[in-house]
UniProtKB/TrEMBL annotation, chains A, B:
<dbReference type="InterPro" id="IPR050109">
    <property type="entry name" value="HTH-type_TetR-like_transc_reg"/>
</dbReference>
<dbReference type="InterPro" id="IPR009057">
    <property type="entry name" value="Homeodomain-like_sf"/>
</dbReference>
<dbReference type="GO" id="GO:0000976">
    <property type="term" value="F:transcription cis-regulatory region binding"/>
</dbReference>
<keyword id="KW-0804">Transcription</keyword>
<dbReference type="Pfam" id="PF00440">
    <property type="entry name" value="TetR_N"/>
</dbReference>
<keyword id="KW-0238">DNA-binding</keyword>
<feature type="DNA-binding region" description="H-T-H motif">
    <location>
        <begin position="28"/>
        <end position="47"/>
    </location>
</feature>
<feature type="domain" description="HTH tetR-type">
    <location>
        <begin position="5"/>
        <end position="65"/>
    </location>
</feature>
<dbReference type="InterPro" id="IPR001647">
    <property type="entry name" value="HTH_TetR"/>
</dbReference>
<keyword id="KW-0805">Transcription regulation</keyword>
<dbReference type="GO" id="GO:0003700">
    <property type="term" value="F:DNA-binding transcription factor activity"/>
</dbReference>
<protein>
    <submittedName>
        <fullName>TetR/AcrR family transcriptional regulator</fullName>
    </submittedName>
</protein>
Length: 196, 196
């Protein structure tokens, strides 16, 4: 059974807090060591560099997201699976706001040492939305449209989720989910202003 | 008639290129001066600090986005206005990929000296989507849902647009728009796998 190192966990938590606050470039290993209450030598023993430390933090985050999306997708057939994915992603964002903010800022950067592993994982997360969407689009839909739709739903959930946490944290999660999902209902395109 | 300074433009263009490549923290005023082919004194004469330089770059970007969204919204009534806004935003992203990437990475950061002006402008851009959505949602919709829906459509367009430029730049803009808008058609929620 792999031993979970409390030291490693403390280092990752400190890096996350500092990274969300000051950005990755604005965070030093000295500050991480101080915030974690762990000797600097021990920080470097667990993570050979700041880059490795943040790479592990971010890839673990995207990896959790992929698993959660996969489980949600498999939990219900058809559009209910998409609804479950949106809800699962919002729950993850709410559960770890600092990580969600850090991931949102990193997800499209191409100047990081970890950009390749992030791109692979990002693709993995998006492919869960693609897999959920594939049976729902008309047969004639161009293949290239699926990744764009998947990115759209992913982006809507991410941006809606961050909007929620930053500007209306008291709104119940179910209402946030309902608001985002309402845009997919086709009711916006009713043509005339609807009545109650 | 205000004189448009070629020097100022060269500095902003250099800052944008470097910022998109190395991040804002990874960019120095020395590098900006070198890339722009402008003396360092002149860089500081036009922008008192690196923070002011990037603040001007980013706020000008969000401000252009707001105007484009507003024009698009007013160009067509009802859902056609939303369609026009999605298309206008995609056109802006395609027209200035470096700025779109930089803005995507900055839009939810709260550790920047310019966070207040960015938040105000971000709100302005989102409020265009809100204004477009307001007449389209059912009368009983909670007031708090509109900003979340607006953030969702904004996020879908941003993420879909970046996905497009990074991974399928040969797809025509109209197809990207169509893919994102299809998710709002209600057809995903058809219940059973549709036939051609």
């Amino acid at each position: 059974m792999p031993r979970i190192s409390a030291t490693k966990e403390a280092i990752l938590a400190a890096a996350l807090e500092l990274g969300a606050l000051h950005g990755i470039s604005g965070t030093t290993m000295d500050e991480v060591s101080e915030r974690a209450g762990v000797a600097k030598g021990s920080v470097y023993y667990n993570f050979s560099s700041k880059d490795r430390l943040f790479e592990e933090l971010l890839t673990a985050g995207v990896s959790s997201l992929s698993s959660a999306l996969r489980n949600a997708r498999l939990s219900a057939p058809g559009f209910a699976g998409i609804e479950a994915m949106v809800a699962a992603m919002l729950a993850l964002i709410a559960g770890n706001r600092a990580l969600a903010k850090l991931m949102a800022a990193e997800i499209f950067r191409t100047d990081r040492p970890w950009q390749v592993s992030m791109a692979v994982l990002r693709r993995e997360a998006l492919s869960e939305f693609e897999a959920g969407l594939a049976p729902l689009v008309p047969a004639g839909t161009p293949r290239g449209s699926l990744p764009l739709m998947a990115a759209g739903i992913f982006g809507a959930t991410l941006m809606g989720g961050l909007e929620w946490l930053l500007f209306s944290p008291d709104t119940p999660a179910a209402d946030v989910s309902a608001a985002i999902l309402f845009t997919y209902s086709g009711k916006l395109d009713a043509g005339t202003p609807p009545t109650a």
